[in-house]
Amino acid sequence: MRITDFGGFADFLTKNNSPYHKDGIKVALFQANFENLEKYIRSLFASIAYNNFTGVKLYEYEGYYVSVFYAYIKAMGIELIGEDVTNKGRIDLTIKLPNAIYVIEFKTDGSNALSQIKEKNYHEKYLSDERGIHIIGIEFGIKERNITNIQWEKVK
Prior knowledge:
Blueprint: H1 8-14, H2 25-31, H3 34-46, H4 62-75, E1 79-86, E2 89-96, E3 100-108, H5 113-119, E4 132-141, E5 146-154
Parallel strand pairs: 3-4
Antiparallel strand pairs: 1-2, 2-3, 4-5
């Protein structure tokens, strides 16, 4: 298959021939397997060439990590909402699967992402939904340019 084919890039990322597919991010999300989710997100960010950061310190900003993850998940055709507005703030990313909703907060260097979700009750927006709700806090280290902590809980 050529990447230039219609849908080729998305197919590359989501078909069996992709290095990220086999037990990858999509499968981990659908199975609520958070250990594998962490492993494959870590691998995704580790694969970004260091010279992409030369002269520009994108890795210092939370938005960089959210954008990379958002683009990757969106390319899989999974329903998601970036900057999902609630009555107490904005959820960085909400992923909607047939059987579950994931409320995700991203933070950099030392901030507790999961605590913010709990303090602001971001998940309450989806309590009337029949699907299960998982909250996930993902923290990135500026020095590491990768995940330094990931925590999750099932709230419904």
